[in-house]
TrEMBL record:
Lineage: Bacteria, Bacillati, Actinomycetota, Actinomycetes, Micrococcales
Protein's name according to its UniProt entry: Phytanoyl-CoA dioxygenase family protein
Keywords, in A-Z order: Dioxygenase, Oxidoreductase
PANTHER family membership: ECTOINE DIOXYGENASE (PTHR20883:SF48), PHYTANOYL-COA DIOXYGENASE DOMAIN CONTAINING 1 (PTHR20883)
Source organism superkingdom: Bacteria
GO molecular function: dioxygenase activity
Source species: Microbacterium istanbulense
InterPro entries: Phytyl_CoA_dOase-like
């Protein structure tokens, strides 16, 4: 993509984000890296059989060199910089891997309702690891709903769902848009946008990686500071305390292309 085309795409993305609360970037990461990500999910599930595919959360991230390599890919950070500026930190990240036939719903919610951030200057990047379609429970958004305030949450245990809660307000599902994504595609959405996903009743897995980027001027507050996966990714550190980047340990960590750059120096 030429510099002019890239600038035009960025301007269009910002307009769409401002108007609808989300925007999509296609083919951001290459097939080889997404293949590694798909294998990484299987590797995590083998080592953590106590966790469902939807529960591969941020507590695993800080000691996982491949996970950190993935969320700090320059192609993702360049997109993040468009929305949060040049000083970028990771707030949290989470694989949501819905298994075939039994993957759980994510009920309607707003991301920002779950977080203690001051100010609520944060973006969610949703990276497709698998093909994501209506049949296997793709992400669904209510365009324009980011312009409403954050709603209170209510617990929901009467139906199987990933979060155990939903927003305490009515949602007109007839307004929902299905986000159909291929591996390597990226959705960027606002912390206030109303979104969710249906159960996976298909024979195909549906896996995506959520990545929450903040400008380093946004403070992680309450019991979340220092947060288990907060990590400086680009620029100046700002107001938070961060985890150190993990060192690759041969025979222990997930092997991946370029792991030598994450290894401890030979003494």
């Amino acid at each position: 993509m030429t510099t002019t085309a890239s600038a035009e795409r960025t301007e269009a993305a910002l307009r769409e984000y401002d108007e609808n609360g989300y925007t999509i970037f296609r083919s951001v990461l290459d097939a080889d890296l997404m293949g590694e990500a798909a294998e990484h999910v299987l590797w995590l599930q083998e080592r953590h059989p106590e966790l469902a595919g939807e529960d591969l959360g941020h507590t695993l991230l800080a000691k996982d060199p491949f996970w950190v390599r993935l969320v700090s890919d320059p192609r993702l950070l360049d997109i993040a910089e468009t929305f949060v500026g040049p000083d970028i930190a990771l707030f949290a990240s989470h694989y949501i891997s819905k298994p075939p036939f039994s993957g759980k719903r994510v009920l309607w919610h707003q991301d920002g309702a779950y977080w203690n951030l001051e100010p609520m200057n944060v973006m969610t990047m949703w990276l497709a690891v698998d093909e994501s379609t209506p049949e296997n429970g793709c992400l669904r958004v209510i365009p324009g709903s980011h312009k409403r305030s954050l709603e209170q949450l209510r617990e929901r245990s009467d139906v199987p769902n990933v979060l155990g809660s939903e927003m305490d307000a009515e949602v007109d599902e007839s307004l929902a848009h299905d986000l159909i994504l291929s591996p390597g595609d990226v959705d960027v959405h606002h912390p206030n946008i109303v979104h969710g996903s249906n159960a996976n009743t298909s024979p195909r897995r549906r896996c995506g990686l959520t990545i929450r980027y903040i400008p380093t001027s946004t403070k992680i507050t309450g019991d979340e500071q220092p947060f288990a996966s907060a990590m400086l990714l680009r620029g100046e550190p700002g107001v938070n305390v961060y985890q150190p980047r993990p060192v690759y340990r041969r025979g222990i960590d997930f092997p991946f292309e370029g792991r030598e750059d994450c290894a401890a120096p030979v003494r």
